[in-house]
Design brief:
CATH class of one domain: Mainly Alpha
Strand content: 5-15%
Radius of gyration: 18 Å
Helix content: 55-70%
Strand order of the largest sheet: 1-3-2
Shape: globular
Order of helices and strands: HHEHHEEHHH
Structural class: mainly alpha
Length: 148
């Protein structure tokens, strides 16, 4: 059994604290890089999903991004309003819809190709270490998703 150190309740020893600070900080790095594209970080994540295999149903995007549908809905509406994505009813059911990028949304993908290198450059961490960190974080996500 793993034994915790005597000072296990120190703030700097908390995994949750390190993850929260890292998350906010990295998203903050994206902000000025995404601004010229007219995207917020959550909008960028939706567009990344839609630049893949489309069309995707709304629920598929919510699941993919691990986002509550109530949180995703206004993001999708803003992207629709800005002309970057469009919705289509699935099987004639207005409550079930799929999403796909518009011509403008697809054109934005070309400009977004500059985002990953800009983030890597800003962080100043070798890409191999960032990919290893991503892999480790995926293990944490999988561990959290396992039934208790």
């Amino acid at each position: 059994m793993n034994r915790l150190p005597d000072d296990a309740l120190e703030l700097d020893r908390q995994v949750c604290f390190a993850l929260a600070v890292a998350s906010r900080s990295v998203i903050g790095v994206y902000r000025p890089i995404l601004e010229p594209l007219g995207l917020t970080h959550p909008q960028y994540l939706v567009m990344l999903a839609l630049w893949g295999d489309v069309p995707l149903r709304f629920r598929e995007i919510a699941d993919m991004l691990r986002m509550d549908p109530a949180t995703l809905s206004p993001i999708v509406k803003r992207l629709e309003h800005s002309g970057l994505i469009e919705r289509a009813a699935v099987d004639g059911d207005e409550r079930t819809f799929s999403l796909a990028p518009t011509e403008a949304g697809l054109a934005l993908r070309e400009r977004a190709l500059d985002v990953p290198p800009a983030v890597i450059d800003r962080l100043g961490i070798p890409v191999e270490r960032l990919m290893a960190l991503r892999d480790e974080l995926s293990l944490v996500i999988d561990a959290v998703d396992r039934p208790a």
